[in-house]
Amino acid sequence: MSDESKPADLRIRTKQFALRVIRMFGSLPNTTVAQTLGKQVLKSGTSVGAQYREGCRARSDAEMISKWESALQELDETAYWFELLVEGDVVAAPLMTGLMRESDELIAMLTASVKTIKGRTGG
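Above: the chain's sequence. Below: its structure in token form.
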């Protein structure tokens, strides 16, 4: 993947990830536990794309790194809520596999992007 295609691909993938999180939230049972965990994952999972886009419009590499590292924190938090949904027997593990895999892939892609920027800036 060329450097030019990474931002567009990540913009699309983080938005698609948010939409998948929204749909997953909508399908959760109407129990206190499911709704409480669901609201947490809804907030963090939809924040990833917003943080990524803010980084794309950053005025400096330092600002970009900061925003993308915030997106990474949101992804890690989202993965945590996914784990609780599965391990708390709220959602069957096979139903979460795709979202969990996508969060892992987005973490890997964003981590690589941050490392690349830090490498070129000596940060």
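The chain has one domain: 5-121.
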